Amino acid sequence: MLPRYIQTGSDSLYDDLVQVSAGLYKKALTDLPPDVRSAVNRVAEVEVGGARTRLDVMVKSIDVSDRTGIIVCQDTGICVFFVKLGTDFPVNGAKLIDALRRGIAVATKEHDLRSSVVHPITRENRQDNTGVGIPDVHVEFVDGSEELEILLVPKGSGSENMSYLKMLSPAEGISGVKRFVLDSVIDAGPRPCPPTVVGVGIGGTADLCAGLAKKAILRPVGEPHPEPEVAAMEQKLLAAINATGIGPQGLGGSVTSFAVHVEYAATHISMNPVAVNIQCWRGERAAATISSDGAVSYGY
Amino acid sequence: MATETARTLQLRAPLTEDVVRDLRAGDEVWLDGTVWGVRDASLIRFFDKGQRPEGADFEGAVFIHTAPSVRMEGERYIPVSVGTTTSMRMDRFTRGCLEDLGARAIIGKGGLSQDSLQHFATLGGVYLSITGGAASWETLQIEEIEEVLWEDLMPECLWKFRVRNFGPLFVTMDANGTSSYQQVKAHTQAHLAAAYALLDD
Q1: Which residues contact residue B47 at a Cβ distance below 8 angstroms, ignoring those fewer than 6 apart?
Q2: How many domains, chain B?
Q3: CB 3.0–4.6 Å: which of A9, A29, A189, B65 could bond B108 by disulfide?
Q4: Neighbours of B187 (CB within 10 A)
Q5: How many helices (H) and strands (E) in chain B?
Q6: Which of A70, A159, A197, A258 has the most B C-beta neighbours within 10 Å, making it the best mutation to test the interface with B?
Q7: Which first-to-last residue range defines the signal peptide (chain A) (predicted)?
Q8: Counting Cβ atoms within 10 Å, is residue B9 exposed (0-12), middle (13-18) or buried (19+)?
Q9: Cα B123 to chain center, whole Å?
């Protein structure tokens, strides 16, 4: 095989990456993942009355976006990239991150997307959905891989504002962790646009824990954690959350959340951190895989 | 939460106090006429900076919590995506919107506080909930962006939309002190012990 991007620093690679990033942004905002679509359709069939009407509007808006290319939700979000970089994929990491950032600005202009990103102190808006530290780019390395995987989540503020972190004590145990998750979802109530996916981070440090909660919402809706004990905890949390009756849009109903996803990391003997990151019903995300011969495939 | 007496109503904005006071939590509303887009930055300018735009009349107005995506065609703004944002951030402006500006209804998602519910009762106003996140559906119901004021706040300007058959909206906070959000909260409280029990069973 003759890799098209044989030389690190190949200009065509970074031009392509800008286009991939721009394409992912538009795709994430218009084309909801199949797992989100089936979750919405499933709940539309079980709810009744006003809750059913609200789910029907969600189904219709997905359909309108498929037909017209209008973005599903007006919130163009705050862009977070999760990159899996094969160690045998020839790329300059700093240029990669710059290309992803430029792609967001390109898509914003090209598709007349609202710029939702401002300076946190002056509130100045650059009008291109970028700013200091944004997009946020997380990179993991995959040993021996020749591929570059890019996942984009343009996270909406309605759900991101409903984020929670608590440094519990070990004495509060896993029982305290579970109660905190339920209490957080009740506190969020109607605001994160339920039905939601509830991402839970357990353990690590404060920032790692919050990051795990965010990582948890990346999983396809309802895909259980690979460890049976963790998957069982996800089911218990989901049952408890849906027993609250908060329902779609927080106006009552049987489904408050589509799923609960838990991710964990080891923690300190005297720590017991828990974090919650909520994803709204729209569940926007889009992914691309680029092989070292230049082929790009898109997914979710 | 729909009640047995819930109705489906077609209304035209601006709204009168009589029309608004007749609305009941649970009613489904479809709206025609003018809807003003307001949001964090524009409401801060109204009430914290005390500014008013020239030539705008908000008597009986319907406000919507939004900041759209738009594009320019010649001199006009064309809607790209108009959706609704979480209302609670703008809760402290409810009284000013009704009392100082004359608005009669606020469209949003997620509801407002008990303080706002009190203002709706005292001043004659309602909260109309829309399905959040379903902006593409909503966008097709916007006939035109008639006017844009305070453009320097882009995208958080004052947007004057003309809407047709805009909905479904639900009255979820009425002028009689009923809040669907409070009803759901009460339901959650009543089922809280059972929910906690499910965590450990």
Answers
A1: B93, B96, B100
A2: 1
A3: B65
A4: 16
A5: 7, 9
A6: A70
A7: none
A8: middle
A9: 16
Which pLDDT value is given to residue B47?
97
Q: Is residue B60 part of a domain?
A: yes
Any idea what the Cα angle at residue A7 is, between residues A5 and A10, rounded to 5°? 65
For tokens 């409810």, name the residue: B94
Q: Check CB contact under 8 Å for B133 and A72.
A: yes
B131-169 pLDDT, tens digit each? 999 999 999 999 999 999 999 999 999 999 999 999 999
Compute the nearest-CA separation of B57 from chain A (Å): 26
**Do the domain assignments include residue B134?**
yes
Tokens of A59: 């189904």
Tell me how far apart the alpha carbons of residues B12 and B33 are, in angstroms, rounded to a whole number: 5
H helices of chain A, in order, are 11-30, 34-46, 49-68, 93-110, 157-160, 173-188, 206-216, 228-242
Question: Contact, A193 vs B109, CB < 8 A?
Answer: yes
Residue with structure tokens 């795709």?
Answer: A27
Residue ranges of chain A assigned to CATH 3.30.360: 11-30+72-156+284-299
Cβ atoms of residues B111 and B87 within 8 Å: yes
Q: Helix, strand or coil for residue A209? A: helix
Residue of A nearest to B189 (CA): A244
Crossing angle of the two packed helices B180-190 and B192-200, in degrees rounded to 10: 50
Name which of B93, B136, B85, B135 is nearest B110 in CA terms: B85
Q: Which residues of chain A have a CB within 8 Å of the CB of B185?
A: 189
Place of tokens 């009986």: B60
Two structure tokens written together for B27? 């009613």
In chain B, residues with a C-beta closer than 8 Å to the C-beta of A252 are 1, 180, 183-184, 187
- Residue B149 forms part of a structural domain: yes
pLDDT of residue B178: 98
Task: For residue A179, give every residue at least 6 positions away whose Cβ sits within 8 Å of its Cβ, in sequence order, or none.
Answer: B196, B199
Report the gap between the CA of A152 and the closest CA in chain B (Å). Answer: 18
Contacts with A246 from chain B: Cβ below 8 Å: 184, 188
pLDDT reported for residue B4: 56
CB contact under 8 A, B184 and A252: yes
In tens, the pLDDT along A131-152 reads 999 999 999 999 999 999 999 9
Nearest CA among A126, A133, A208 for reference residue A167: A208
Q: What is the pLDDT of residues A223-256, one digit of tens each?
A: 999 999 999 999 999 999 999 999 999 999 999 9
Q: Assess if residue B1 is contained within a domain.
A: no
Q: What are phi and psi of B31, to 5 degrees?
A: -120, 140
Q: How far is CA B134 from the centre of its chain?
A: 15
Cα A198 from Cα A190, distance rounded (Å): 14
- Domain A11-30+72-156+284-299 sits in CATH at 3.30.360
CATH of the domain at B167: 3.20.130.10
Expressed as residue numbers, the domain containing B13 is 8-200
